[in-house]
Amino acid sequence: MAAPRRFSAAVLLSGTLPWDAGLPEETGRLAGLPVFWGRDTADTVIPADLVARTGAWLRERSGADLREWTCPDLGHGISAQEIRDIRDFLATAPPRGPVGPTSRRPDITDA
After folding, report:
1. Which among 18, 23, 97, 100 has the fewest CB atoms less than 10 Å away?
2. Where are the beta strands (DSSP E) in 23-110?
3. What does DSSP say about strands 10-13 and 65-70: parallel, antiparallel, or unpaired?
4. Residues pairing with 53 in the sheet
5. Residues 90 and 11: beta-carbon distance below 8 Å
6. C-alpha dihedral (32, 66, 37, 17), degrees to nearest 10
7. Closest C-alpha among 24, 33, 37, 28 to residue 5
8. CA–CA–CA angle 49, 50, 56 (5° rounding)
9. CA distances from 41 to 22, 72, 84, 88, 97 (A)
């Protein structure tokens, strides 16, 4: 989060943003960054207020190109379908700035 322009995309699974770590919260911080946020709508591990705060910031202030993925009855976990959806999400994320010594994004479609 300190340098979001260094990344082509972000994936957040069964969690929230690190609010206690001094997360920069300015509007537009993630402008245009594709973000996948996967979770169970009734995850009992993550406090609901932190989920609500994360959702509000991602949707209303971050500027991210947000893709929300929810699955009831998943709990605090990850499903095989979610992994497939993440793979597809990352495969379609446009390259954004240098990502390595050759500025070439690795092919993830064979993973």
Report:
1. 100
2. 34-39, 65-70
3. unpaired
4. none
5. yes
6. 60
7. 33
8. 90
9. 25, 6, 19, 22, 33
Q: Class assignment of domain 4-92?
A: alpha beta
Closest CA to 30 of 66, 67, 63: 63
Residue with tokens 């995309």: 9
Report CA-CA distances (Å) from 55 to 45, 84, 99.
16, 22, 27
d(CA 13, CA 46): 11
Q: What is the reported pTM?
A: 0.79
Rounded CA gap, 5 and 106, in Å? 18
Which residue ranges make up each domain of the chain? Answer: 4-92
| β-strand partners of 35 | 10, 66
